[in-house]
Amino acid sequence: MSIYEFEGRRPSIHPDAWIAPSADIIGDVRIGPRCYIGWGAILRGDHGTIIVEEGSAVEEGVLIHTTVGFVTRIGKEVTIGHGALLHNANVDDFAVIGVRATISNFSHIGRWSIVGEMGLVIANQEIPPEVIVVGVPGQVIARVEEHHKTRWMEGKKRYQAFTRRNPIGLRQITREECSFQAKTP
């Protein structure tokens, strides 16, 4: 992982968080316990502050940035899907941001809300709690039900488990240690 101080703004990372070796953490970024920061993620708090609260997963390729004087807050047990983009946004506890979704300037995602894959939450848009949002721009299509919460809590627990498993089970290997298998499983 690459961790950078920028003009005196330094990351704060809880020892129980796991950050992939290819992630970049820059400036005033505060990462809580049991957080997973995936491969290729970039959290850039060089101008403002980014807070990732306990148990949240920032998956592979996510980009989070914030501007001068603003705080981007990722609440507790939030899932931010692969390749998502968040800029000057706030996401409340237990929310899910789908793969490749964009959460734009000064928008707010309510508790337990789900933004579907490739969804676009436009600038200043308020997403209420416990709704499902899809489309470009994002529109509410349904309420979050208990089966959604159950399913997403299982996923959140898997990423939290990675914060314990990766330091033990992940080992960089050489090309020579790789074997070619022509057969598909």
Q: How many helices in DSSP terms?
A: 1
Radius of gyration: 17 Å
The parts where pLDDT drops under 50 for at least 5 residues are none
Average of pLDDT: 95
What is CATH's topology name? UDP N-Acetylglucosamine Acyltransferase, domain 1
- The counted number of beta strands is 20
Strand content of the residues, in percent?
Answer: 35-45%
The description of the largest β-sheet is: 12 strands, parallel
| Distance between the ends | 32 Å
Helical content class: 10-25%
Shape: globular
Count of discrete domains: 1
Q: Which CATH architecture would you pick?
A: 3 Solenoid
The CATH class is Mainly Beta
Please identify the structural class as seen in this structure. mainly beta
Order of helices and strands: EEEEEEEEEEEEEEEEEEEEH
Under CATH, the homologous superfamily reads Hexapeptide repeat proteins
Can you characterise this structure?
The chain has 185 residues and is mostly beta strands. It has a single domain, classed as Hexapeptide repeat proteins (UDP N-Acetylglucosamine Acyltransferase, domain 1, 3 Solenoid), CATH 2.160.10.10. It is built from 1 helix and 20 strands. Strands 1, 2, 4, 6, 8, 9, 11, 12, 14, 15, 17 and 18 form a 12-stranded parallel β-sheet that branches. It has an 8-stranded mixed β-sheet with strand order 3-5-7-10-13-16-19-20. A hairpin with a 4-residue loop joins strand 19 and strand 20. The longest helix is centred in the last third of the chain and has 24 residues. It starts with a strand and ends in a 16-residue tail after the last helix.
